[in-house]
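Homework help board

Subject: predicted structure for assignment chain

Our instructor gave us this sequence and asked us to write out the predicted structure in token form, then describe one feature. I got the tokens but I'm not sure how to describe them. Can anyone check?
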Amino acid sequence: AGLQNQVALVYDSSTHSNQGELVALLEGLAETSSLITARPSGQEGPVPSFRIEYAGKPTGISFRGIPGGHEFTSLVLAILNADGKGKLPDSGLSSRIRGLKGPVRIKTYVSLTCENCPDVVQALNQMALTHADFQHEMVDGAYVQDEIATLGKLASDDETSEELKKASYELLGSMNFVVECFGNFVDCVDY
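My token output:
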């Protein structure tokens, strides 16, 4: 069965050299169904990025970078899952996800060659579709090397290390929930 409602792939404008590749990818996807559109957001960004809207509303799912390789599957599944198709959490798991205290804002830094990262991205995308105040952004690390370097500096800075440790423990608790719900993704990040 085809899509039941309108899906919009809403991209930011960018002067990045790969912006045309992103637009071509999104427009190519839009050609596969009369219910998928690709359109500019009217906003400017430093790197290619877009978000998914369903039935005119934000889904909480966004991508920074171009989801190629294994992450292309994550994009296609996000579209299908937003439309209620594909493997979705059962009612008990959905209830647990909706019970998470929000707001929840997660960025997943991936390498497009990482074979385990799509499992994490897809699980977090499903959580964003299930929880009204959950947002997930897949970030291709190749586009944000400065951001990754900053994260590394924070981890090594003595003044912030205690706060970072506390935040990390809280995040690990949340990630344990994701692992319990969606499976093991231990070797996802290869930075």
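Reply (TA_rk): Your tokens look well-formed. For the description, you could write something like this. Residues 21 and 191 are 24 Å apart (CA to CA). That's the kind of observation they're looking for.
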